[in-house]
Amino acid sequence: MRNITIITGASSGIGAEFAKQISKNTESSELWLIARSKDKLEDVKNEIENEKAQNISEIKIIPMNLSGKEGVNLFKTFLATEKISGGFEINMLVNNAGFGTYGEFAETPLDKELSMIDLNCTALTGLCGAVIPFMKKGSVIINVSSLAAFLPLGNFAVYAATKSYVLSFSVALAAELKNKGIKVCTLCPGSVSTDFANIASNGARKEVLNGKNPVAIVAHCLNKAKKGKRIILWSLKWKFTAFMSRFIGRYLCARYTFKYNKRPYLKTQQGTSEY
Description:
This protein has helices at 13-24, 38-50, 68-85, 110-131, 157-177, 196-200, 214-226, 236-244, 250-260; strands at 2-8, 30-35, 58-63, 88-95, 140-144, 183-187, 231-232. It has 275 residues and is of the alpha/beta class. It has a single domain (2-260), classed as 3-Layer(aba) Sandwich (Rossmann fold). A seven-stranded parallel sheet has the order 3-2-1-4-5-6-7, sandwiched between helices.
């Protein structure tokens, strides 16, 4: 029986870091890496193979757009094809694929905001539903949310809302799957040093402000996930922010961030997202 770990959004950033760290310490025999960019997935695969990962007999790269119902159906078809080739169990799913958009909602492209919902919410939900039948006691689902999940944010309205959905859905799913022995964990990072800001701002902001090292964040997440921690926050500052969100008015936070936390968005440049 093949044992599989699946990582979405694995071509860069947090997703690529999950792939590298899991490959060094896993019970899975196969690692499936999913993203849109085949070339970037190849780079991640080559880096892992150069490190001579233990236990992994195959690293399968899967160039696939997971967005929306169409993406979920593509993934389900892929699972059905793999099942014909031989039985397998899924030890872990890391739902990391997603993106954000900076700027006032009325001033940002509506198509991009809707695509964000399709990927951040619809695809994540669909992948969970698709993999659960292949999981067993001890399997783990890690859904990547955000510190933005805890309160509405002006100039970040749809992104924060999608991540709030991810957090709520994941906690409820953890409760439902407890009796089956399947753990569901939600990673809620704040600022991380990835390409997120460049994509979210359409090139207006090249780097995440005060971004933290994804290596430490992913290592912390994997350690806590194995212990069954349901909501995972790496730094004390992030934990404090999440705790204090209980005492802050939701409209007050949204209005304050709209007025004072401006997020640049370049309207004229056609940006691309890798997720």
